[in-house]
Amino acid sequence: MPAALILLVPAISAVQARMNRIRDEAKLTETDVLHNAPPMVAFTTVALGSFRGLVADYLWLYSRRMQDEGNYFEMVQLASWIVKLQPRFTGAHAFLAWNMAYNISVTFNDPADRWRWVQRGIELIRDEALDYNPGDPELFKELGWIYQHKLGQEMDDANRYYKF
Questions:
Q1: How many CB atoms lie within 10 A of CB 112?
Q2: What separation in angstroms does the CA of 67 have from each of 1, 11, 63, 99, 162?
């Protein structure tokens, strides 16, 4: 058994080195440093290291509970923290923006309140997510969908207010 282990370790090491090289050449991992990141994002990236994912997961679960309880302002703050912890996770940006523009906005009757939530969803993608992920097609699709569906069509009861 020990002889087999001695023979397998170099083989596994060679395969792992090749996999790492392929991953780097294909740019499958995000290892680039965020340039011009706000101090909070830079600090959390360095200070928390690989624990950022665990903290972001916990905040994600907590934000879902806040939404279920109707604590929307707390949920938005948690979303902001999640985005700062995982700035390149475009799925979180897209989901949170969609959630604000669609799920939360329709819980209000006043068109001004509804517009505030739609606008916050747009700002999350346009002003924050696209800064960290400038060429991500998913973010452009989500942003275009919100503009087209909420402002361009008459699917929302408050669409005339949004257009104004």
A1: 9
A2: 55, 50, 6, 10, 24
Predicted model pTM: 0.67
Non-local (6+) Cβ contacts of 106 within 8 A are: 114, 156
Nearest to 164 by CA among 149, 151, 153: 151
Q: How many helices (H) and strands (E) does the chain have?
A: 9, 0
Q: Each residue of 8-25: pLDDT tens digit?
A: 888 888 888 888 888 778
Distance CA 111, CA 24 (A): 49
Measured CA to CA, the distance from residue 85 to residue 34 in angstroms comes to: 12
CB 117 within 8 A of CB 104: yes
